[in-house]
Amino acid sequence: MEDEQIVQLFFSRAEQAIQELDRKYGTVFYAIAHRVLNNRQDEEECVNDAYLGVWNAIPPARPNPLLPYVCKIVRNLSLKAYYRTRAAKRQSEYSVAIQEVEHCLTGGDSAEGELDARELTGAIESFLDTLNRENRVIFLRRYWFSDSYREIAARMGMTEKTVSVRLTRIRRRMKQYLEERGLLR
Question: Engineering a disulfide at 144: which of 17, 101, 130, 140 sits with its beta carbon 3.0 to 4.6 angstroms away?
């Protein structure tokens, strides 16, 4: 079933919409949750919560494309669950991937920290625009989807060592890019 048809089912408030969404993209959603949580029960809860979130958001939202819209919901819910239950344990692929770039991240719970985070997000998006397509895919597969070096290498048709070297160079370039803009402390 096409994405537009699935969205139309949501607009019709047909429960089949969730079934079709799960049938078409469920494995992608579970993979995202798994990378962050590494716990089947928590993964199912996040994906089901995402389906509820999509049900409540459509209508009025009419996401196009549908897949990234729902992936973002799944990832955000997974990250919330991760920080709520496992941040101290450092058990998942997500924690390994995020440690690689944490020196390039600012944060804080204050309003200033939130402003810094928004500014940092915009700068990282701008930095990603400077990368060629292949390097951008490698970066996103590692730090958005939390893929392992092995998985990225298989997907991109290169060795794990090549992926490792590229990510090191990308992180170094990103750090320099952020420092030049005064975004690193």
Answer: 140
Q: Is pLDDT above 70 for 90?
A: no
DSSP state for residue 74 in the 8-state scheme? H
Q: What is the pTM of this model?
A: 0.63
64: its two tokens: 């196009």
Residue 160, Cβ density class (10 Å: 0-12 exposed, 13-18 middle, ≥19 buried): middle
Structure tokens at 172: 């170094």
Q: Which residue ranges make up each domain of the chain?
A: 3-85, 95-180
Q: Which residues, in sequence order, are CB contacts of 69 under 8 Å at separation 6+?
A: 54, 61, 63
Q: How far apart are CA 170 and CA 163, in angstroms?
A: 10
Sign of CA dihedral 157, 159, 164, 166: negative
CB atoms within 10 A of CB 152: 23
Pairwise CA distance, residues 51 & 64, whole Å: 16
Q: What is the DSSP letter of 107?
A: -
Q: What is the CATH number of domain 3-85?
A: 1.10.1740
Is 95-180 CATH 3.90.245.10? no
Q: How far is CA 142 from the centre of its chain?
A: 9
Over residues 53-88, the pLDDT tens digits come to 999 999 999 999 999 999 999 999 998 888 887 655
